[in-house]
Amino acid sequence: MDTQLYDTVIVGGGPAGLNGALYLGRSRRRVLLIDSGDARNMAAGVMHNVLTNDGATIADFRARSRAQLGAYDVTFRDDEVVSAERDGDQVVVTTKESGTFRARTLLYAAGVRSVLPPVPGLADLWGTTVLECPYCHAWEVRERSFAVYGGSVPSECLAATLTVWSDTLTYLTDRRELPQDERDRLTAAGVPVVTDGVSEVKPHPEGVEVRFEDGRSASYGALFLHLDIEPRVAPLRPWLQAPDLESVQTDERGRTSLPRLYVAGDLGRNMQQAAMAAASGGLAGMAINADLIREDRPGSLPEPPPPSPAP
């Protein structure tokens, strides 16, 4: 068992967790960062829209970030967190292999898990020719023909957005009848609709082959879709009673209604982009440092604003 008392344990080693560690390390805080290595965007292999790192591999970005953090009091553990709970004025974090750790605060940046529709072949192409974010991936497949799959998650707004990168789009759906407002938006964007249902997705020299329930098939340069997501908050049960951390976040600096618990990255508000996630980690790092100063030296800093009312 590690007997050190850390100022902060950070769960998650993506842009949010790493930038939070940087802010806290440079604030002379003792930090432990625990990362399972199971990043949401690992299938894509690269990251975009981060200045000086546009197109960098995720593995290289993480390795360089850790090397830079070596100048500060930041310790790394490659492990999986199985539980985290408050114990008085401390937080107790238990991992699968490395044991138990104690800290004054917890920055939870474990992210979310993308949930792919149960279409055969889809998972094999995820991150290469089956994509979600136009700002992250559409440039690499620009001017090809696109299919947009509106399965259980309607994606007509995604289709309209993608018209910037391609003049040839087709909207695929398993629903025989679309709501009128959804169909109207697709018509306004000039995107035709195919309602024959998708039965399988396969690799194709041009990108991806889609097979329909009636036996037909068509090829496209790429297939885009919106996904359901699952927040990775199981280790916080039963401390966290809410379904996610966004619903208990009380300000833009990652504070939550649960004392000593902070959130950054994909689990927070509107942060599901690498650059924004990194920014949220920095904001949370500043909030943690300020709150620890208040705890150690009452009255030295003004109190943060009161929590926002529950939605």
Automatic annotation (TrEMBL):
One of its GO terms (molecular function) is thioredoxin-disulfide reductase (NADPH) activity. Signal peptide: none annotated. This is NAD(P)/FAD-dependent oxidoreductase. It comes from the Bacteria. Transmembrane segments: none annotated. Residues 6-281 form the FAD/NAD(P)-binding domain. SUPFAM superfamilies: FAD/NAD(P)-binding domain. Keywords: Flavoprotein, Oxidoreductase. The lineage of its organism: Bacteria, Bacillati, Actinomycetota, Actinomycetes, Kitasatosporales. It comes from Streptomyces auratus AGR0001. It catalyses: [thioredoxin]-dithiol + NADP(+) = [thioredoxin]-disulfide + NADPH + H(+).
